[in-house]
Amino acid sequence: MFYVLLNVTVEGVLLGGLYALFALGLSFSVGVIKLVNIAHGDLIVLLSFALYYLTQPLGLPLPVAFLLLLPIAFALGYVLQTGLLQHVMSKGLLPPLLVTFGLSVIVQNGLLEAFGADTRSIPGGALQTAAIRINDQLYLGVLPVLTLVVAISSIFALDLVVYRSRFGARLRAVADSPETARLIGLPVNRIYALALGIVGATICVAALFLGLRMNFDPLSGPGRLIVAFEVIVLGGLGNLWGILVGAIVLGLAQSIGAEFDIRLQLLAGHLVFLLVLLIRPQGIFKQS
Amino acid sequence: MAKAGRLETMIELSIASPESSQRTLSGATETSVAPLLNVSGLSVSYDQFRALSDIDFEVGAGEIVAVIGANGAGKSTLLKSLIGQSGSMAGHMRFGGKDIIGQSTAQTIATGIALVPEGRRLFPSLTVDENLYLGWETGSGKGMTLDGLYSEFPLLAAMKNRRAGHLSGGQQQLVAFGRALLANPKLLLCDEISLGLAPKIVDQLYERIPRIRAQGVAIVIVEQDVSRALRISDRFYCLLEGEVSLSGRSRDTSREAVTHAYFGSH
Amino acid sequence: MQSAANPILDRKSLEVPGASLRVSQTPVVVGRLVLGIGCLFLCLSPWILDANALQIATQFLCLVTVALMWNVLAGYTDIMTLGQHMFVGVGAYAFFGMVSLLGIDPYLAVFAASAVALVFAIPVMFVVFRLRAAYLAVGTWVVAEVFLLIAGRIPRFGLGTGISLPLSVARAFGSDASTRAVAVYLLALVIAMTAYLATWLLLRSRLGIGLTAIRDNEEAASALGVDLVKARILAYLWTAPFLGMVGAVVALQKMRISPQASFSFLDWTVFVIFIVVIGGIGSLEGPIIGAVIYFALREYLGDLGTWYLIVLGSISIIVMLIEPRGVWALLRRYVGQDIIPVSHRSGAA
Question: Which value does ipTM take for this structure?
Answer without folding.
Answer: 0.90
